[in-house]
Design goal:
- This protein is about 40% helix and about 25% strand.
- It is α+β, with helices and mostly antiparallel strands.
- The protein has two domains: about 180 residues, GAF domain (Beta-Lactamase, 2-Layer Sandwich), CATH 3.30.450.40; about 190 residues, Alpha-Beta Plaits (2-Layer Sandwich), CATH 3.30.70.
- The longest helix is centred in the middle third of the chain and has 35 residues.
- The chain is elongated and about 85 Å long.
Amino acid sequence: MNPGGIDGVVSWLVDGARSAQRPDDVLAGMCERLSTCGVPLWRVSVFVRTLHPELMGRQFRWTQGQATEILEAPFRLLEESEYRQSPVVHIYGTGAAIRRRLAGPDARFDFAVLDDFRRQGATDYFAAPLLFTNGEIHVATFATKRAGGFSDGDIASLEAIVPPLARVAEVRALRRIAVNLLDAYLGRHVGERILSGQIRRGETDVIQAAIWSSDMRGFTEFTDSAPPREVTDLLNLYFDRQGPAIHEHGGEILKFIGDGLLAVFRAGDDADFGATCRRALAAARQARLAVDALSLERSSRGKTPVRFVLALHFGEVSFGNVGGGGRLDFTCIGPAVNLASRLEGVAKTLGRTIVCSSAFARWTPGEVLPVGAFELRGIRSSETVFAPREELSDTPGEPHP
């Protein structure tokens, strides 16, 4: 072993591991440097908890001779006995490092994962807390396959790199948390803009986009009679049927307003307008089927069915910071957004699920057909409204198969 080499690993971490662009690069770079110094690593994992609406944390796992893996840990993992009885959870609770020899007379297998490691050939295991400055405890684990396990010098080297590793992990985790929360609450593109410094009020871009404006039918009446928790649960189920369709087809959810949802599908140049509108229409059809399935499932259990209306429009919108009093919002504004919102009323009048404007229909020829011209509140001229061709063969207001 080269003690000076370990000092180099420590210095690299203290300097922020700046040569590593991604968190998995940090782990790989550290493990490769430790291996060069003679520490006989087989597998190293770093467990970092995070703030995310669907994930409790992430595991970064390096295995000798393999690509570094990033594994996401959903909240349901908290209910699994193997996780609750793991060394990681033990360290969360105690804040103390543990070492377990996995071969020889001193072998000890008081955690299920250790027996699994032994079967894979591991001979020694060391796990240490990564102590963040805010008091949080995260964990790093190290395993070897070398006969005789880690030496005292190996353990001293691992103990030496744990504190600077905690600092690097904390800095990287804080940025990841910021990204997660911005993505969850504001949308991915908005989060990117905020992190890049576009936070001045009035700073806007003009973009061409397909606009999605949807609303649940009968929601006001439902909230008047249903318990608050049931209302919240229904909203989450309802939005779960729209969000995946929007994201899978390249859209971005801008905001939820009660039972309303506003999303945009950004277009590039003129050649992209047709593709953009087709993506939005595909997402609308997918969401309609998903909401219909939710409605039928609820009806089969004697619960209130779900109906919604969705208006699609294409046009120019101003996208940027609006607000006051120290509170800002990234949103889309402009006549195109207003027209999309007014189209929802037409959908309710017609008993249709999806309607679209003539501007949107221009880019989806053959996919939508006209249903008539209508006066829209606050819009100067009447608007020819279109609907997907498959809806025109259905009975208005009925769910789609």
